[in-house]
Write a structure and sequence with these properties.
Order of helices and strands: HHHHHHHHHH
Largest sheet: none
CATH architecture of the largest domain: Orthogonal Bundle
Helix content: 40-55%
Bound molecules: heme C
Radius of gyration: 17 Å
Number of strands: 0
Length: 207
């Protein structure tokens, strides 16, 4: 299904690690797009606009972050049961070059806002996201993920992401099934109703 043969031999010869965006040439872009359309779109939707809320939106996500996640699935260090069940097998046959080209492809797609939710919940979510909650020890998410939740570099974009996926990740950070120290500390102090509030706010945000 995912064929390394799609990648020109010369490119494979030249590359050992991840690629910079300006190193991804036309044929590599085309190869990545073919894999995205024929394989990844089954779950992540056309151009990374997934429909089912279990599958994360990839459109407009940062290429650096996407590449790091694909490498973590392949190395089997992102260990949530859904990561294991769906993505370990997907990432296994991909080499670094192909992963970088796929990350670049999704990074270039235009993100969209998701559905709006309950207004009171959204308002509470906005408050947590922008200001945090000092008494509960919750830092403002925007300090790292950006004031518009569009992220930067290794801080993922959260705007427009599905509530269900966001909730699942926060719980996985909490239990360390997805083992990331920064987000573990934050998820530990985030009560479940605030998780839902912040996820509801984030889903409604557009580009
Ligand atoms: C059979 C369904 C399925 C297919 C096909 C699939 N994925 Fe996924 N993908 C998932 C699920 C489910 C998750 C969320 C895992 C979790 O909850 O930790 C995910 C997560 C991801 C993430 C992490 C996103 C984030 O925000 O952290 C990336 C990147 C990704 N997939 C890329 C791909 C690429 C590239 C392909 C094609 C080669 C692909 N996926 C094919 C189901 C799929
Ligand atoms: C100190 C910086 C920092 C703060 C503050 C922060 N985050 Fe994060 N967050 C990160 C980093 C770094 C990652 C990427 C983790 C990785 O590499 O897997 C991340 C990942 C995430 C993800 C996973 C996204 C995906 O696509 O899978 C979610 C959800 C998330 N953060 C939500 C939040 C929320 C909600 C808050 C506020 C309550 C918050 N974060 C505050 C640094 C931060």
């Amino acid at each position: 299904m995912i064929r390394r043969a799609l990648i020109p031999f010369t490119v494979l010869m030249l590359v050992t690690g991840g690629l910079r965006a300006d190193e991804i040439d036309g044929s590599l872009r085309l190869a990545a797009e073919r894999i995205a359309v024929s394989t990844c779109a089954t779950c992540h939707g056309p151009r990374g606009h997934s429909i089912a809320p279990k599958f994360p939106v990839l459109a407009g996500q940062h290429a650096n972050y996407l590449l790091a996640q694909l490498q973590a699935f392949k190395a089997q260090t992102r260990g949530d049961p859904d990561a294991l069940g769906y993505m370990w097998g997907m990432a296994a046959p991909l080499d670094d070059t192909t992963m970088a080209a796929l990350a670049d492809y999704y990074g270039r797609q235009r993100p969209e806002a998701g559905q709006r939710g309950d207004p009171a919940l959204t308002a509470r979510g906005q408050q947590i996201y922008q200001q945090g909650d000092a008494t509960a020890g919750i830092p403002p998410c925007g300090a790292c993920h950006g004031p518009h939740a569009d992220g930067t570099g290794m801080y993922p974009r959260l705007a427009g992401q599905h509530v269900e996926y966001l909730m699942k990740q926060l719980r996985s950070f909490q239990s360390n099934l997805r083992n990331v120290a920064i987000m573990h500390g934050i998820a530990q102090v985030l009560p479940v109703h605030d998780m839902l509030a912040v996820a509801t706010y984030l889903q409604s945000l557009g580009p």
